[in-house]
């Protein structure tokens, strides 16, 4: 896996993934940025959410669950001293569909956290306390 990050002046950076996709990162005005993009640590959080959500949806689809929507809401705490690493991250999944089985949703969330989500496992091994929960929203017919 590869990536390239180009400084674009002030606190603005353009990241390009090995697959050719670009993302804009910037700092807040108090750090010399213009708030034109996500912060690098927000990217880490978004990456974790994307990785976990990808797994949950994939596992539920393979389990023949009628998933129509799956959102992951993340909240993180960071250390107060430099380096301001994440210390705690909580993922809350909202899974919507028809006839979803709670045992299958629980299993999907647990498998993602414990076996499949590389980002979650990497952060956890680095000392971040990662927790998760879920809610199921039954959609009418």
TrEMBL record:
Q: Which domain of life is it from?
A: Bacteria
NCBIfam families referenced in this protein's UniProt entry, alphabetically: PRK10738.1 (NF008009)
Coiled coil stretches, renumbered: none
Q: Which InterPro entries match?
A: KH_dom-like_a/b, OsmC/Ohr_fam, OsmC/Ohrsf
Q: Which Gene3D superfamilies match?
A: 2.20.25.10, 3.30.300.20
Which Pfam family is one of this chain's hits? OsmC
Official protein name in the record: Putative redox protein
């Amino acid at each position: 896996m590869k990536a390239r990050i180009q400084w674009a002046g002030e606190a603005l950076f353009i990241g390009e993934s090995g697959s050719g996709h670009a993302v804009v990162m910037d700092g807040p005005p108090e750090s010399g940025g213009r708030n034109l993009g996500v912060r690098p640590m927000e990217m880490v959080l978004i990456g974790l959410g994307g990785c976990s959500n990808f797994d949950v949806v994939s596992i539920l689809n393979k389990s023949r669950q009628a998933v129509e929507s799956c959102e992951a809401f993340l909240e993180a705490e960071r250390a107060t001293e430099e380096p301001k690493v994440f210390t705690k991250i909580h993922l809350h999944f909202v899974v919507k569909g028809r006839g979803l089985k709670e045992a299958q949703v629980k299993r999907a969330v647990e498998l993602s956290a414990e076996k499949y989500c590389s980002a979650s496992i990497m952060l956890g091994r680095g000392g971040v306390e990662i927790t998760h929960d879920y809610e199921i929203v039954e959609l009418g017919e």
